[in-house]
Amino acid sequence: MKINAEEVQHVARLARLRIDPEMVDKIAGQMATILSYVDKLEAVDTREVPPATHATALVNAFREDRQGQHLPSEAVFANAPAREGDFFTVPKVI
């Protein structure tokens, strides 16, 4: 598919991109290459291919939840910059 300079500039305006005038022809060629590849992909029959969210099967890599002992308060607050009782003290945000 042939892309002209006006189309490149139009897409650049929509994307709010500033393109150097000497780069317009190069970008037009690159866009044409991308669109020709998309045309090849559209020619592939995918009616029998089930939809997928990932190219490979995903496996849950997390460990099983196990009940255990919690940390003692002193260990939790050991690296805290400030604390007040059993709470972390943080700077006021608002």
Automatic annotation (TrEMBL):
Segments spanning the bilayer are none
Q: What class of enzyme is it?
A: ligase
* Database matches in InterPro entries: Asp/Glu-ADT_sf_sub_c (IPR036113), GatC (IPR003837)
Reactions the enzyme catalyzes: L-aspartyl-tRNA(Asn) + L-glutamine + ATP + H2O = L-asparaginyl-tRNA(Asn) + L-glutamate + ADP + phosphate + 2 H(+); L-glutamyl-tRNA(Gln) + L-glutamine + ATP + H2O = L-glutaminyl-tRNA(Gln) + L-glutamate + ADP + phosphate + H(+)
- Print the keywords alphabetically: ATP-binding, Ligase, Nucleotide-binding, Protein biosynthesis
Task: Output one GO MF annotation.
Answer: ATP binding
Q: What is its EC number?
A: 6.3.5.-
Q: Name one GO biological process term.
A: glutaminyl-tRNAGln biosynthesis via transamidation
Q: Which SUPFAM superfamilies match?
A: Glu-tRNAGln amidotransferase C subunit (SSF141000)
What function is annotated for this protein? Answer: Allows the formation of correctly charged Asn-tRNA(Asn) or Gln-tRNA(Gln) through the transamidation of misacylated Asp-tRNA(Asn) or Glu-tRNA(Gln) in organisms which lack either or both of asparaginyl-tRNA or glutaminyl-tRNA synthetases. The reaction takes place in the presence of glutamine and ATP through an activated phospho-Asp-tRNA(Asn) or phospho-Glu-tRNA(Gln).
Q: Which family does it belong to?
A: Belongs to the GatC family.
Quaternary form? Heterotrimer of A, B and C subunits.
Q: Which PANTHER family match?
A: GLUTAMYL-TRNA(GLN) AMIDOTRANSFERASE SUBUNIT C, MITOCHONDRIAL
What protein name applies here?
A: Aspartyl/glutamyl-tRNA(Asn/Gln) amidotransferase subunit C
The record lists the organism as: Desulfatitalea alkaliphila
The gene for this chain is gatC
